[in-house]
Aspartokinase (Pararhodobacter oceanensis), 846 residues
Amino acid sequence: MPTLVMKFGGTSVANLERIANVAEKISREVERGYNVIVIVSAMSGKTNELIGWVNDTSDIYDAREYDAVVASGENVTAGLMALRLQEMGVSARSWQGWQVPINTTSAHSAARFVSIPRDNIEAKFAEGFRVAVVAGFQGVSPEGRITTLGRGGSDTTAVAFAAAFEAERCDIYTDVDGVYTTDPRITAKARKLDKISYEEMLELASLGAKVLQTRSVELAMRYGVRLRVLSSFDETDETSGTMVCDEEEIMESKVVSGIAFSRDEAKVTLVTVEDRPGIAAAIFGPLADAGVNVDMIVQNISEKDYDEVHPGAVTDMTFSCPIDQINRARKAMENAKAAGSINYENLIVDADVSKVSVVGIGMRSHTGVAAKMFRALAAEGVNIKVISTSEIKISVLIDRKYIELAVQTLHDEFDLGAPADDV
Amino acid sequence: MPTLVMKFGGTSVANLERIANVAEKISREVERGYNVIVIVSAMSGKTNELIGWVNDTSDIYDAREYDAVVASGENVTAGLMALRLQEMGVSARSWQGWQVPINTTSAHSAARFVSIPRDNIEAKFAEGFRVAVVAGFQGVSPEGRITTLGRGGSDTTAVAFAAAFEAERCDIYTDVDGVYTTDPRITAKARKLDKISYEEMLELASLGAKVLQTRSVELAMRYGVRLRVLSSFDETDETSGTMVCDEEEIMESKVVSGIAFSRDEAKVTLVTVEDRPGIAAAIFGPLADAGVNVDMIVQNISEKDYDEVHPGAVTDMTFSCPIDQINRARKAMENAKAAGSINYENLIVDADVSKVSVVGIGMRSHTGVAAKMFRALAAEGVNIKVISTSEIKISVLIDRKYIELAVQTLHDEFDLGAPADDV
């Protein structure tokens, strides 16, 4: 029998009524002839409650105990889902991470998969069980302690099972009905994509589309797992949602697939930094240690090229990060300056910026996308502050007040509201 | 280093403040030089929440899934307690049932211990850990699935660990400060006992004193575990609470140790039952199947010894059960009659009775306790409806309206308010 992996996030299993609703979806796939591996998250809010308790209990952070506490939320959902399926006449049982076992590294709270042996679950399928309900987000370390994979780890668990069991597909049920060309709240012309390539999805996810956890897409790409994103709240069938797959499978001909954006960015510029080998490491090391997620980095030659105080070359260094990390970033820079490991004349923070990106695998073979983007923004009077590019995306920082205008303009410019032509 | 087992029930770990308070008590025992094994229950209310979810999810009762869900409450407490102890500088880690492992039978929701190997926990003690925080109430089956021991199973877990690790003592922290001669709410003369024998404790616990789970006392008696009951809310020291121990260790000279009672009993009489071999089984089998906890059983020869309709001997059969099981009991009897497996003329229910018992290991060597009890009740005009006796207790059913009077009268009659003379 072919295997299907289905994953349900916290909002999809938030209460008993939703669990029952989701069980119907599982039952339908069993009727279609699949053996189903279901990956469940904790009921919405439960993980945060547990994390709150851990934080309030101790300032000492023992990730092993953190994991042991936090993983319990998924175990509850797994048991309840198995019971609900039994109630509907579907032979199901729950699996906790250590029972499968989901072998991971000992990097608690950020563990990585080592192996997922198929034997135990396959033995149950052979006995006639049709559904294995697996607690997501968790595993077991070589020392026999419970590990967790970090936030979004249930998506990753689903993809890892799909890879290990060579599943026909991995369906990620969530609270949106697919991947859109951009956020429909910004423009009513936003259109759901039927298919999108792994590479594009990676850029969209990491740019704030918030549909799929980045690591799960990476894993899917690596193992060729066909990933489908669809809504757990709608009626769904074989054609629902958005399929994330290899670009060969995609027949659409658009150069640009979507416009991603991230509203709450900040831009930090260190003015007149000594330009010597190792200076980048001296700046971004302390930022990483302080937990600042640096996104774009731009280095320019400063106007004050040589002077008496700084006999070497000097430069200006600009980076962006989420706005709520700006104090940490500033403090890390000030500490590094005080410690003498870096030197700068001035630190300028611009907390009123947003990022907008055009993403499309077609850029690889089409030129002029950047020029088209910049021209469209200029025509609307939107000033570009920082530019960063990769093979399949172009991102710019702009003033926050222009973000809706910029997204709408680019969505129109690249004609994303219209269905793609089949090639 | 000597080992101490400490057990904390749900109300003792009901919130983070109480967990912190309890951690102080553990820390003090570590300072006294013990390696401590701590058994924790789920935070008060959590287990009921989980059970409610299971019941609302499915009418089909799969005890394996029930156990997997319900055991998660204790895992949360264990992790939080370990974190709190670490915060205080005490080296502690949590243990879930399968990690120890606590090997049990496969009788889910009512599993029994098979073995508790010391190796894993002792290896950690040898590394310098001073506290093992074990999730109570759970274990792992030979099939590798999570089991639970049923209600009160955390007490039993504590005693089993004390036996396995040859602990110096097993301290059961609860919301009362010890075992009393009777309920202090009934008479202000009730006095806390410093020591009580296993046998007496068994009778008191099963009669409704509600301090210790019966099976845990049986287990303690069997393995000679010294069990102490004390309050998690008071300041406690080495002499606090009540010690449950071998009778040889008890120097008190009272014949009667306590007056137990159970307010909400009901009495059922089957009038004119055919008296033939197997009739008791035909009556009490269906009651057991219906989940009725039959307590006292009395069989009298009926007045209508022989008649034409029932050519055999006939009898009346009376039993008592908790009042909230009376409908189940009635239905089970009516069904059995309808099915023809038993026959009776009339079923009489008396739902207005209570049970009062005098308990004392001294009864073994002292005669006249029953006569003294019956005389004292008669002097107050309390009519006795049913009598049942064991080696160390005498129980009677009386009208519910007399229960306070009866307890006070017997407490005075056996002079329980005064401290015991040391022999």
